[in-house]
Amino acid sequence: MSLSAEVAAMAGTQAPIAVGVKDLVTDLAAVRMAAAEAAATGRPLHVVRAFTWPLELPPGGDGEEREQAERIVADAAAQAREWHRDLVVAPEVIDGDTIEVLLRAAARASMLVIGSDDPEGPADPTASVSFQVSARAAGPVLCVRGTGTPDGPVVVGVDGSPDAQVGLATAVEEARRREAPLVVLHAEGAACAETHAAADLTVEHRQVEGPAGRALIAASADAQLVVVGAQGDRPTPLGPVTQAVLRRADCPVLVARRRHAAAQALIAAPHRPARLGSSRA
């Protein structure tokens, strides 16, 4: 069985946790968190690296770049197995644009884990891999940034929108799984969110004034995870709050999304997906 077939078989039985890796210097934290998620949920780990062949190969360098990419994913897989001995890991280098490759991996996965772009840039979200993948993915995307506070709460913001409902439901699940308290930030003027499904959790409600993004970023300083919701039945541009949190949060950020029908189309799509700009909403 080929590696691609093996990964497809994994997705057919139990969807893996996928992690995008460029190199271990920048993405070791993402690999660590993805491996921990896979071990905690009993899922396999799919380590993915996109590869684009250079237009011109240097003399004597035939295939060298590809071999380096293969070494990177192999090293990442070995590191994941060292952390979690019983973890099933499938490393894979896939030809194609980074965003396209990660979107396809996300379509087959229960969650995609990626490293965050530089916090000070790029200013244009169309140039940001984490923004583009978070906006277009068929399922949840965990952007690893900052160190977080391991025993801190799970934080979520609500404003009465459908997106916020998705975020709240996911935050409740994450807090329960992590055995962590839940902090719910209510945007100014928003009704108090229903948290009856979290009766077994320690829940703190906070009414915030001013920009919601600023409040979530401030709360992230003492949190282990911030959850933001993205509902939609199709990829949509990220709003300013989500963009701000992805750029400035001091802990990992989970962009929660209900898996939609576009997932299977994304797996089969032969073309490169268009990039999205920022939302004015």
Automatic annotation (TrEMBL):
Residues 17-145, 153-187, 192-257 form the UspA domain. Signal peptide: none annotated. CDD domains: USP-like. It comes from the Bacteria. InterPro entries: Rossmann-like_a/b/a_fold, Universal_stress_UspA, UspA. SUPFAM superfamilies: Adenine nucleotide alpha hydrolases-like. Belongs to the universal stress protein A family. This is Universal stress protein. The lineage of its organism: Bacteria, Bacillati, Actinomycetota, Actinomycetes, Micromonosporales.
